[in-house]
Amino acid sequence: MSSPKSISRAPLSRVAATVVTSTVLTVRTPGAGFVDVTSEVAKFVAEAEAREGVVGLFIRHTSASLTVQENADPSVLTDLMTVLQRLAPETANWTHDSEGPDDMPAHVKTMLTSTSLQIPVLDGRLALGTWQAIYLIEHRRRAHSREVVLQFVGAAR
């Protein structure tokens, strides 16, 4: 059990949420893998003139997903793809395969990850950690055009 002296908290910040700004980000994926969308989300936050609040992301697909993951060592993303492939292999005799053998595994991988994220915005910037990035994960083998709804709710500058 940790003592109270090992935990600290920044002062509270309070603003009235007076702004809702939305857009749709279209991402062309090259096939299965991670696509870093952090800079596009940061650009949206800047264009929304966000000061403090939250940016929500929602992907409009059932065979691709979103995650926050490490951005420093690419081997992390490689290992994560390996894990997802092991958890939902194409060779599992799925009954749903109308779009090919990677169809149902892609749905399972989306269910295991996430279709939406919320990232705090503090002082006009995404409050991500030093080694964090926002990724779209394409679970299908072929290239796709994916849509991600971005929405900032909070106070503007």
Outline the biggest β-sheet. 5 strands, antiparallel
H/E topology pattern: EEHEEHHEEEE
Number of domains as seen in the coordinates: 1
CATH class: Mainly Beta
- Structure class: alpha+beta
What's the number of extended β-strand segments?
8
CATH topology grouping: Jelly Rolls
How many DSSP helices? Answer: 3
Tell the overall outline.
globular
For CATH, the homologous superfamily is named as YjbQ-like
Average pLDDT confidence is 95
Strand order of the largest sheet: 1-8-3-5-6
Give the uncertain stretches in residue-range form.
none
Distance between the termini: 41 Å
Q: What is the CATH architecture assignment?
A: Sandwich
Please state roughly what percent of the residues sit in beta strands, choosing from under 5%, 5-15%, 15-25%, 25-35%, 35-45% or over 45%.
35-45%
Helix content: 10-25%
Radius of gyration equals 18 Å
